[in-house]
C-alpha cells in the first residue's frame, strides 16, 4: 500500500461564536444601549431595566430564552398596553343630551 496524499485544504481557524446583544434602545426615553437584560435560568426569571428612565419589565425564562426574546416581549407588552388604553377611553366630546335648536337673528 502507498502513502496517502495530503489534503489540499487550508487549515481553518476555529469558528468564533457570535454573541447576541444584551443592551438595547429604550422604548420610552429612546437612549441607545440603555436597556440591559439579565436572565437567571436557575430561577426561571428574566429582567429588563433601563438605566436612564428606570423602566422595568420581568418575564418567565427557560433554557432557550435569549435577551432579544425578552426585549421583544417587552415591546409587545408595551404595544398591547397602549392599545388597551386607547380602546377603553371614552370619547371626550360626546354628550347624551340633544342639542338646543339654533336661534335665528332679529331681522324680522
UniProtKB/TrEMBL annotation:
<dbReference type="GO" id="GO:0000993">
    <property type="term" value="F:RNA polymerase II complex binding"/>
</dbReference>
<keyword id="KW-0863">Zinc-finger</keyword>
<feature type="region of interest" description="Disordered">
    <location>
        <begin position="81"/>
        <end position="108"/>
    </location>
</feature>
<dbReference type="GO" id="GO:0006368">
    <property type="term" value="P:transcription elongation by RNA polymerase II"/>
</dbReference>
<comment type="similarity">
    <text>Belongs to the ELOF1 family.</text>
</comment>
<keyword id="KW-0862">Zinc</keyword>
<dbReference type="Pfam" id="PF05129">
    <property type="entry name" value="Zn_ribbon_Elf1"/>
</dbReference>
<comment type="function">
    <text>Transcription elongation factor implicated in the maintenance of proper chromatin structure in actively transcribed regions.</text>
</comment>
<dbReference type="InterPro" id="IPR007808">
    <property type="entry name" value="Elf1"/>
</dbReference>
<dbReference type="InterPro" id="IPR038567">
    <property type="entry name" value="T_Elf1_sf"/>
</dbReference>
<dbReference type="GO" id="GO:0008023">
    <property type="term" value="C:transcription elongation factor complex"/>
</dbReference>
<keyword id="KW-0804">Transcription</keyword>
<dbReference type="GO" id="GO:0008270">
    <property type="term" value="F:zinc ion binding"/>
</dbReference>
<keyword id="KW-0805">Transcription regulation</keyword>
<protein>
    <recommendedName>
        <fullName>Transcription elongation factor 1 homolog</fullName>
    </recommendedName>
</protein>
<feature type="compositionally biased region" description="Low complexity">
    <location>
        <begin position="88"/>
        <end position="108"/>
    </location>
</feature>
<keyword id="KW-0479">Metal-binding</keyword>
<keyword id="KW-0539">Nucleus</keyword>
Amino acid at each position: 500500500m502507498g502513502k496517502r496524499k495530503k489534503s489540499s485544504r487550508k487549515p481553518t481557524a476555529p469558528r468564533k461564536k457570535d454573541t447576541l446583544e444584551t443592551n438595547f434602545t429604550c422604548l420610552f426615553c429612546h437612549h441607545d444601549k440603555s436597556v440591559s437584560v439579565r436572565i437567571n435560568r436557575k430561577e426561571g426569571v428574566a429582567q429588563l431595566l433601563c438605566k436612564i428612565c428606570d423602566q422595568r419589565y420581568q418575564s418567565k425564562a427557560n433554557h432557550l430564552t435569549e435577551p432579544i426574546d425578552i426585549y421583544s416581549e417587552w415591546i409587545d407588552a408595551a404595544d398591547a398596553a397602549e392599545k388597551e388604553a386607547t380602546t377603553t377611553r371614552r370619547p371626550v366630546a360626546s354628550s347624551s343630551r340633544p342639542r338646543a335648536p339654533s336661534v335665528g337673528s332679529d331681522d324680522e
